[in-house]
Each structure stands twice: as structure tokens, then as C-alpha cells.
Specification:
Layout (H helix, E strand, L loop, with lengths): L1 H9 L16 H107 L6 H28 L8 H16 L2 E7 L8 H21 L3 E8 L3 E8 L14 H11 L3 E6 L5 E8 L14 H4 L17
Parallel strand pairs: 1-2
Antiparallel strand pairs: 2-3, 3-5, 4-5
Helix pairs in contact: 2-3, 4-5, 5-6
């Protein structure tokens, strides 16, 4: 036994102090174990995360599919609502156009009835009074009374003609272009403006509902120019285009008011009329640089264009007190 012990020590294989069965690992093995422990923990955490993701990936996919389906349904409902809105707008514009056409036809009928009935009676009364007034045997006092009666009958006939013209301007029977030219000629003569008219595509046929509305808009626009623009030149463009009619009225006046003065109803009424016809109206103006009014109306009654919100009249009204001129004399009243 002693020989074995000596042999082991001599060869360098002696047991460490404390005995051969102490169980302590070598230093290199302890270092390797301390390095592997974080890697093992990281691998365990990664495995847990992968397992969690794998478990919940199906639920997430199902939720995404449900959200996509819900978005698809919402998109379909929105498209359906937009179609319904467009159909409602088209229906409202169609009804407004039909109402406007019916109203214009009724105005023409009333105007004819007034002219043929009441107008003829007034004319006959005027002739009778005139004949009585020219009777040489009439006393002077009675002659003066007949002169007053004849004068009032004459005023009544003028008022009646104004009413008939409001119901249906007789100038439109020769077409929109001719009516516009006569209107501008009257304005040039009575207000001293230099008026220019440019037309394109107008056929000279009797005006329909759209042309009638456009003529009324021209009257109102010229009324605003004469009353408030303090202009010396007004230029009017009337054109028949593929999509409808275009009216442009330009002047070299003072432009829009900027002093905060109260604003009238002229452009408000024009904006309402244009919107009811399914058209568009724009107003461009700068102080001391004139004003340009542009109006577009659809060509055919019952075929409205998409509705667009016109510029608020409160932002576009240049002056207060704009009134519709129904006869040329009204412009210089």
C-alpha cells in the first residue's frame, strides 16, 4: 500500500488534500456552467414567448379577419348611403326643375289672360274716355275730370304691362340673345354705361325655363351694377355650352364693400335661384378693381348637375339694397 502511495505521488497523480472523494468540480467546468446558465434562461424565455405567440396567433388572425369584415360592411354601408344621398339630391333637383317649369308655364298663362282680358278692357275704357274728353260740348270742369281719368287709365295700363313683363318677359319670345341685347341697350341709354354683349351658341329660339331663369339673373346682376358698382363699363357673356348655359357679368366699378355696411338681398336671391336650378355661382371682386359674376346652369330641365354649395351670399354681396329691376326705367329709379 505504501508503494502505491509513493508511486502516485512520484508520478504527480496524488490526491488533493482532503481525500479522493471530496466531489468538487474542476475550475474550468465551474466557469463553463456559469456561462451557460444565462443562455439557458434566455432560451427558456424565448421558448415561452414562442409558445405564447403560437397560442394566440390564431386568435389575433381571427380578430383581424373580423375587423376586416366589419370595415368591409361599413364601407359598403357608406357607399350605399352616398348613393342614396346622390339619388335624393338628383330627385330634389328634378322636382325643383319641374316645379320651376310648371311655374313658368302658369306665369305665361296668367300673363296672357291678363293681357287678353283686363288689358283689352282698359284699352277700351281709355278710348271711350278719350272720345268723351275730345267732345267739344263737354263743360270745362267735366273735361278736366275726364283728363284725370284718362291719365289714371294710362298709368294703370303701364302698371299692367309691368306685371305681365314680370310674369313672362315678352322679349324672351325672340330668344335669350335678343332679349339680353335689348336689356343692355336700355341700360346703356338710361344709365349711361358702355355695355358689351358676347354670345355663343344661342339659337334664337323662344326661351325655355332655363333661359328664363338666366334672363332674370342677368336682370338682377345688371341692377346691382347700375345701383352700386359705380362702373362705366359692363361686359356680359352669354354662351350655350355642352353642359348648359354660362353667364358672366364683368364691370370696372368699385368692387365689394369693405366697410362692414349692411348687405342687401340681391345676391342672396340670385344664389337661391341658381341653387334651385342645380347650377353654380361664383363672385370675384377686389376693392377698386371691379367685379366678375359667373353663373352656370344646366341645359335641360329635369337633368340637374351635382349640387354644390355656392359661396355664401353674406360673403359675396357687394352693397346693400340691391333690388330686382323689372323694367328698364327701374334701373334709374
Amino acid at each position: 500500500m505504501f508503494a502505491l502511495a509513493g508511486f502516485g505521488q512520484g508520478a504527480g497523480y496524488g490526491l488533493p488534500p482532503g481525500g479522493a472523494l471530496s466531489g468538487s468540480p474542476p475550475p474550468a467546468a465551474s466557469a463553463s456552467a456559469s456561462l451557460m446558465l444565462p443562455l439557458l434562461l434566455a432560451a427558456a424565455v424565448l421558448a415561452i414567448l414562442v409558445a405564447f405567440w403560437w397560442r394566440h396567433a390564431g386568435q389575433a388572425a381571427r380578430r383581424c379577419a373580423m375587423l376586416a369584415a366589419e370595415l368591409g360592411r361599413e364601407r359598403a354601408h357608406r357607399a350605399q348611403a352616398e348613393r342614396a344621398l346622390r339619388e335624393t339630391q338628383a330627385s330634389m333637383s328634378h322636382l325643383a326643375a319641374e316645379r320651376r317649369s310648371t311655374r313658368d308655364a302658369e306665369r305665361r298663362r296668367i300673363g296672357r289672360d291678363i293681357h287678353d282680358d283686363l288689358g283689352q278692357h282698359l284699352l277700351a275704357l281709355q278710348l271711350d274716355i278719350g272720345s268723351l274728353h275730345n267732345n267739344g260740348q263737354l263743360p270745362p270742369g267735366l273735361r278736366q275730370q275726364t283728363a284725370h281719368i284718362e291719365h289714371h287709365i294710362h298709368l294703370s295700363i303701364r302698371s299692367l304691362r309691368t306685371v305681365i313683363n314680370d310674369l313672362r318677359p315678352a322679349a324672351l319670345d325672340g330668344g335669350l340673345g335678343r332679349a339680353a341685347q335689348r336689356q343692355l341697350d336700355d341700360i346703356a341709354r338710361l344709365a349711361g354705361l358702355r355695355c358689351e354683349l358676347h354670345t355663343a351658341g344661342l339659337d334664337g329660339q323662344p326661351a325655355g325655363a332655363t333661359e328664363n331663369a338666366l334672363f332674370r339673373l342677368l336682370q338682377e346682376a345688371l341692377s346691382n351694377v347700375v345701383r352700386h358698382a359705380r362702373a362705366s363699363v359692363v361686359e356680359v357673356t352669354l354662351a350655350r355650352e355642352t353642359s348648359g348655359f354660362r353667364l358672366v357679368v364683368r364691370d370696372n366699378g368699385v368692387g365689394l364693400a369693405t366697410d362692414g355696411a349692411p348687405r342687401g338681398m340681391g345676391l342672396t336671391g340670385m344664389a337661391d335661384r341658381v341653387a334651385a336650378a342645380g347650377g353654380r355661382m361664383t363672385l370675384e371682386s377686389r376693392p377698386s378693381q371691379g367685379t366678375t359674376l359667373s353663373i352656370a346652369l344646366p341645359a335641360a330641365v329635369g337633368r340637374p348637375e351635382p349640387l354644390t354649395a355656392p359661396r355664401p351670399a353674406s360673403e359675396a354681396e357687394p352693397h346693400a339694397g340691391a333690388l330686382l329691376a323689372t323694367t328698364p326705367a327701374d334701373y334709374c329709379a
